[in-house]
Amino acid sequence: MKKGKEESRGRNEWVCDLYCGGGADAEKWDGAQISHYVGIDVLSSGINEVREAWESQRKSFTSEFFEADPCTDNLETLLQEKDIQADLVCCLQHLQLRFETEDKARRLLSNVSFLLKPGGYFFGITPDSSTIWAKYQKNVEAYHNRSSSMKPNIVPNCIRSENYMITFEIEEEKFPLFGKKYQLKFSSDVAAETHCLVHFPSLIRLAREAGLEYVEIQNLTEFYDDNKSLFAGMMMNAGPNLLDPRGRLLPRSYDVLGLYTTFIFQKPDPDVVPPLATPLLPDSSYDNDEARKISEQKGILGPGPAELRFSEAL
């Protein structure tokens, strides 16, 4: 995200915020010196909430809002007369729900490519599937070690810590590339939320098909460490027991932030710079069984722990 902002600095950027409602921070763009904001959300209530916040705070930039679902609607058709050419498109929530099916993920990325001008960036935050799956596999291994003489028919489907509980809907040792659902409930939450694992090699493949090149995927704990000077103050103000006096993450906040990752893609501008290199992925003839086999062998679903991180060429 920082890289995308640095690359486009000084252009009076247009920003498009996907799934902008649902408690999104209406002040997050105040210091970014953007010139125009486009908010898109599937719920009219979410649109109205953000629009009212914008109107009441008298922003220094113009804005417009559209009710649409970027994972099912064709935004090129719906917004063809709006001439939206965004420098930045962000998806700070709900990307994981688009991985319920390949069609939804594909439509979302196609819409992102339509919204971006050449050279623009797509970035956001999503659960780190590698970290989550690694925790799940440890549970499976521990369960089998405890029951080695009984050969159980099912595997444990629940990950617990003092901060959260993750429960997979289907008890299985293997996972599909799309539609692997789980419930996430933080200790302070009343109810759990449903998410899907994001298979990052598939995200990179579909993004490339839509004309978006991979730039970076980074676990949120590492992102914080790399940008501590920018975010330590915000974390200090967010509440006690998150950082030590030197601004380092305490175990509780490290545990929670480690469940998430940042991602950045770019729509190349052939007239300015050569396209960024996307990690080499299997071509279209490479079937899902083979892709799944690679993931199972390497434990690869996303950035996750360093020992499970995917390489530049899978």
Query: What is the tally of beta strands?
Result: 11
Strand content: 15-25%
Proportion in helices: 25-40%
Poorly predicted spans: 282-287, 290-301, 305-314
Gross geometry: globular
Strand adjacency order, main sheet:
3-2-1-4-5-11-10
CATH uppermost class of the largest domain: Alpha Beta
CATH topology type of the largest domain: Rossmann fold
- Spell the H/E element sequence: HEEHEHEHEHEEEEHEHHHEH
Instruction: Examine the secondary-structure arrangement and name the CATH architecture of the largest domain.
Output: 3-Layer(aba) Sandwich
Distance between the termini: 24 Å
CATH superfamily of the largest domain: Vaccinia Virus protein VP39
What would you say this structure looks like, in words?
The structure is a single chain. The protein has 314 residues and is of the alpha/beta class. The chain has two domains: 2-128 and 197-308, Vaccinia Virus protein VP39 (Rossmann fold, 3-Layer(aba) Sandwich), CATH 3.40.50; 130-193, no CATH class. Helix content is 32%, strand content 21%. The chain has ten helices and eleven strands. A seven-stranded mixed beta sheet has the order 3-2-1-4-5-11-10, sandwiched between helices. It has a four-stranded antiparallel beta sheet with strand order 6-7-8-9, covered by helices on one side. Helix 4 (102-115) crosses helix 6 and helix 7 crosses helix 8. The radius of gyration is 20 Å and the shape is globular. The two termini are 24 Å apart. 32% of the residues are buried. Mean pLDDT is 77; it is low at 282-287, 290-301 and 305-314.
